[in-house]
Amino acid sequence: MRSKAIRWSLAMVVTLAACGGDGDTAGSTVESYPANGLTDSVLAIDNNFLPQTLTVVAGTEVVFENAGHNPHNVVPADDPIATEWGVLDAHFLPDATYSHVFATPGTYTFYCTIHGSAKAGMVGTIEVTAP
Ligand SMILES: [Cu+2]
């Protein structure tokens, strides 16, 4: 039982390690890139994100900071409990920061569930471009 689990874990590590190059088993062909040491930032103010659209190269760490006086959160448009990335308001009180490395090119729409929806209000976008 246990050795099977370990073997499965190793298989996952090997699979992930192999993802640097040619495709993966998930059906997605978008390549991921390692952290590149660059950082950029998005401020949560009352009640908006600044900037509302940020463009970064894949591998950049984006630091979200609650620069407002109110609690906010940062959740992906299709993931309101932030299972993939993002931070809920309990961990994003004023002055708190949350950072995430955007490794895969694409468009990442996010919002604050307190002050917006996935389409309006306190909503923002990270555009991640290929290096
Ligand atoms: Cu908010």
Write a brief caption for the model:
By secondary structure, this protein is mainly β. The chain is built from one helix and eight strands, in the order αββββββββ.
Describe the structure.
With 131 residues, this protein is mostly beta strands. The protein folds into two domains: 1-27, no CATH class; 32-129, Cupredoxins -  blue copper proteins (Immunoglobulin-like). The protein has one helix spanning 2-17; strands at residues 39-45, 48-50, 53-57, 60-66, 75-76, 97-102, 106-116, 121-129. It has a four-stranded mixed sheet, with no helix packed on it. A hairpin with a 2-residue loop joins strand 1 and strand 2. The radius of gyration is 17 Å and the shape is globular. Residues 1-25 have low confidence and may be disordered. Residues 47, 72, 112, 114-115, 122 line the site of copper (II) ion (CU).
Let me know the number of strands: 8
Anisotropy-based shape: globular
Spell out which ligands are present: copper (II) ion
Sheet with the most strands? 4 strands, mixed
Rounded average pLDDT: 86
Q: Which structural class do you get from the secondary structure elements?
A: mainly beta
Number of helices: 1
State the CATH architecture of the largest domain.
Answer: Sandwich
- Which percent range fits the helix content? 10-25%
Strand content: 35-45%
The CATH class of the largest domain, by name, is: Mainly Beta
Supply the CATH superfamily name of the largest domain: Cupredoxins -  blue copper proteins
Give the strand order of the largest sheet, numbering strands 1, 2, ... along the chain: 2-1-4-6
